[in-house]
Design brief:
- The chain is α+β, with helices and mostly antiparallel strands and 298 residues long.
- It has two domains: 3-75 and 89-165, Butyryl-CoA Dehydrogenase, subunit A, domain 3; 174-293, Roll (Nuclear Transport Factor 2, Chain: A).
- The chain has twelve helices and seven strands.
- It has helices at 3-26, 29-45, 54-75, 98-104, 110-116, 121-132, 137-144, 148-165, 174-190, 193-199, 224-231, 282-287; strands spanning 90-92, 200-209, 219-222, 240-246, 249-256, 259-269, 272-279.
- It has a seven-stranded mixed beta sheet with strand order 1-4-5-6-7-2-3.
- A hairpin with a 2-residue loop joins strand 5 (249-256) and strand 6 (259-269).
Length: 298
């Protein structure tokens, strides 16, 4: 085995963790894979013989690359209008695939990713690396070019925002969550407004990301009555609905005329739906890998 093969094997041992770091940083599997690939390119060109802890070295590289990608994203003038739903991790309704288990540890649902994308790039990095991956602040500080004390403050600010805005981590069983989602869908199909109100949390948040164009009509609603009124659109004819796990929790994939129409993630807390995140952007839907659902019964 030559040095490059040996290095590639060592890199593969860390790939899942690196992808998990990048996904939390970027909220996009596509961009996360780009960041991990960049880390490999840098490793393959570097002299790693003096690296004592390759995992920490690679995590730092992925964090730097992700931070630069976040800052570049922020500086673009063409900011999307309306809500932006992060790229979902899609699994069959029966359970999460091994490939996605590391991505979804710590209950990384769409609702949490929505909160993370509202943080500054530096806050997001400090929170992800420290609170989710236990990296010490003296190692985080050089990445964001500040002191360890300032890095601690970045993570603290981020933590307060996450705790105030994100639903609690979901440890309830999937069957109870699926029951709430099924009740919501049945009420929507039947046009039963009262049944919709019954399954929705009074402060439920509904986000529909139809794409960046102003005419697309992306929308964010809050409150059970407004969301229930919008949910009646779920009964429109011609939609084929398939259950799935969206970021580890029950959701649905809908299609029309054989083409993906929407990916819908639900956050269920205490038997009530607290958040509904819908990706309807046709361009982004076409980029999703839905092959994991091919073996499911229609």
């Amino acid at each position: 085995m030559d040095d490059q093969q040996w290095l590639a094997e060592r890199f593969e041992q860390h790939r899942r963790r690196l992808r998990a770091v990048a996904y939390r940083m970027l909220g996009s599997l596509t961009e996360a894979d780009d960041a991990v690939q960049e880390a490999w390119l840098r490793l393959s060109r570097a002299d790693a013989s003096g690296v004592d802890n390759l995992g920490a070295w690679l995590t730092t590289i992925v964090a730097r690359v992700s931070l630069n990608m976040l800052r570049a994203r922020q500086s673009r003038p063409e900011e999307p209008l309306g809500p932006h739903v992060p790229e979902p991790v899609i699994d069959p309704a029966e359970g999460t695939t091994p490939e996605h288990e590391a991505l979804l540890a710590d209950a990384v649902g769409l609702a949490l990713l929505v909160v993370l994308q509202a943080l500054s790039p530096s806050e997001r990095l400090a929170y992800v690396l420290h609170d989710m991956f236990d990296m010490p602040f003296d190692e985080i500080a050089p990445i964001v070019e500040c002191s360890p004390q300032a890095a601690r403050q970045l993570a603290s600010r981020a933590r307060r925002r996450v705790r105030s805005a994100a639903p609690p981590h979901r440890h309830g069983d999937l069957a109870a969550q699926r029951a709430a989602v099924d009740a919501f869908l049945a009420a929507a199909r039947d046009g039963d407004f009262d049944a919709l109100i019954a399954v929705l949390h009074p402060d439920v948040v509904y986000r529909a990301d139809r794409g960046p164009q102003p005419e697309a009509g992306s929308v964010e609603l809050r409150g059970a009555r407004d969301v229930a009124s919008q949910a009646l659109a779920f009964s429109q004819p011609g939609l084929h609905v398939k259950p799935a796990l969206i970021n580890g929790t029950p959701g649905i994939i809908s299609s029309r005329d054989g083409q993906p129409f929407s990916v819908i993630g639900f956050t269920v807390t205490g038997g009530k739906i607290t958040e509904i995140d819908i990706l309807m952007d046709p361009d982004r839907l076409r980029q999703l890998d839905l092959s994991v659902l091919d073996d499911q019964q229609h």
